[in-house]
Amino acid sequence: MSFWESLRIGASGLLAQRLRLDVISNNIANAQTTRTAEGGAYKRQDVVFSAESKPSFLPEFIAARRGLTSLPDKGVAVSQITTDDTPGQRIYDPTHPDADPNGYVTYPNVNPVVEMTNMLSATRSYEANLMAIDASKRMALKALDIIR
Q1: How far is 19 from 12, CA to CA, in rounded Å?
Q2: In tens digits, what is the pLDDT along the chain, a chain of 148 residues?
């Protein structure tokens, strides 16, 4: 694996975790939203990752010369953002403007404790990608020092 490939893999991880953090933040911000433009309470969202395979021309050329038919996956990509359709909690509050005819309000299916745990996980993953990029940079600098 080249220096540039390792940077690209790390960068794909950074971008994916940043989007995950954005989605988690949106979930937390809408934890009490009982009315959306689509109608009804806000529904929790989640990010689905998949392996990314976008090698540059040079690795494809090298793989073809070596008789390889495919290259390994390189990095991570967000394949989709899903919506959790589990029903939210229903609370009796006939004074609420979004109460149904029986006086119940449906709240979002967002659990702030779960979201904060997911946020910590995404933050740690982001930091791990930063450390991997930094390690690649240090190895490249050491290689340059050896050449001098």
Answers
A1: 11
A2: 677 888 888 999 999 999 999 999 999 999 999 999 988 999 999 999 998 866 554 455 555 555 555 555 578 889 999 999 999 999 999 999 999 999 999 999 999 999 999 999 999 999 999 999 999 999 989 988 888 8
Are 5 and 14 in contact by the 8 Å Cβ rule? The answer is no
> In sequence order, what DSSP letters do the residues of 51-101 get, joined into one string?
E-----HHHHHHHHHTT-S-----SEEEEEEEE------EEE-TTSTT--T
End-to-end CA distance of the chain: give it in Å, rounded.
Answer: 22
Q: Using a cut of 0.90, tell me whether the model's pTM lies above it.
A: no
Contact (CB, 8 A) for 14 and 130 = yes
Give dist(CA 56, CA 68) in Å, integer.
Answer: 15
Are 44 and 82 in contact by the 8 Å Cβ rule? The answer is no
The CA distance from 132 to 127, in Å, is 9
Q: Report the alpha-carbon distance of residue 108 to residue 31 in Å, rounded.
A: 6
